[in-house]
Amino acid sequence: MHIKKLASCVAIAALSTGCSMMAPQYSASIENVQTLKNSGETQVSVGQFAFTPGPGNTSPITIRAASMNSPYGNSYGAFLAAAIQQELTLANRYTPTGNLEVSGVLLKNDIDAAGFSVGYVTVEARFVVKRNGATTYDKVKSVKQEFPSSFAGAVAIPKAVQEYNVAVQKLLGLVYEDKAFADAIK
Amino acid sequence: MRFSKLFSIAFAAVILSACAHPYSVSPSADKLGPPIQGQQINASVAYIITPEQSSLAVTTPGGGGDKVTYQPYRDIETGFYRVLSNVFTKVTRLKSATDTETMAKNNISMIITPTIKTDSSSPSALTWPPTRFTTELTCKVTDKNGQLIFETKVSGNGAAEFDEFKKDFNLTGRRASEDVLLKLQRSLSESPELKSYIAR
């Protein structure tokens, strides 16, 4: 009985202790890559995405008792920049330096995994395209990604981590499919 | 008292019952390297991963009697695309073998069809992420008429212990994907069948 009690305490302690983890590196969407390929061949560079932490714009992101850091210098602005760079690279459109640059500001960055059946990832950013220093595109795009969650943290937390990548893919998909953006990077 | 006992039993049952944990086998893009200029095979190729394959969920063993669930085709596709881009000069995705419009538009000379098999395990009784992961990738390369040019089967392994995966649950699956994709890249780029087909 003593051992059973001890084992239960250890299991509950292990499962409820908060931990800090690193988000996986961004995994590109091939559909986004194809959209970039289809919209032209001009080489594009990627500047900084500013990020000021605040309510609904968090770093690290809290997922129940866990916290998730960005794998790009602990910065979610850098995560967004790396995501665009990865997709431009796969589309053969990335250049480290050039007169055409995408940059921006990360405005919302949060995961709500408190619910036992549904969770949400919210990502919102301002995307700016500059050609020779002059702004040719400046729009805010936003995604609220709903995902099935669970009572068990060991299911809900990994699921939320996966869904962050999906939300960023969708956010970038919205930008690339915007005709004004496609024209701005032609 | 009776209620609290009942609640404790129910809580323990939920917590301790074996479950399938969401998992990812996506490789890190920077582990697969950029194309080596001048060494790419000068060909426009396509690969087929159908929407059904992309949404296919696979469940394999983890630790402590638990399981892990993931979508291998969806997770590996980005790395697969990068490897093909490293080997060939132009890569296009097809959603089916009958997508003749995309094939014609991109002047496709070869079509690559992957098949993925995975397995995982862990001797741990206390932690759910697998400590061993295996990914087997078979690729059939055909011409646009379906004639087989080359077939390769490569296998990748990933291993990690608690100290490594406690901050990255997907580590073993990711390592297996990176290993298998690098082996595929070598197999395709060194294939005499592909080089002689292009040289014809």
Brief digest:
The complex is a heterodimer of chains A (186) and B (200). Chain A has helices spanning 2-16, 30-38, 76-90, 153-177, 179-184; strands at 20-22, 45-51, 61-63, 66-69, 100-112, 118-131, 134-148.
Q: Care to describe what's here?
A:
The complex is a heterodimer of chains A (186) and B (200). Chain A has 186 residues and is an alpha/beta fold. Chain A has one domain: Rossmann fold. Helices cover 38% and strands 32% of the residues of chain A. Chain A has 5 helices and 7 strands; from the N terminus they run H-E-H-E-E-E-H-E-E-E-H-H. The termini of chain A are far apart. About 8% of the residues of chain A have low confidence. In chain B, strand 7 and strand 8 form a beta hairpin. In chain B, the strands form 2 sheets. Chain B has a 5-stranded mixed sheet. About 4% of the residues of chain B have low confidence. Chain B contains 7 helices and 8 strands. Chain B is 36% helix and 31% strand. The termini of chain B are far apart. Chain B has a single domain, classed as Rossmann fold (3-Layer(aba) Sandwich). With 200 residues, chain B is of the alpha/beta class. The chains are: A alpha/beta (186), B alpha/beta (200). At the A-B interface, helix 1, strand 1, helix 2, helix 3 and helix 4 of A face helix 1, strand 1 and helix 3 of B.
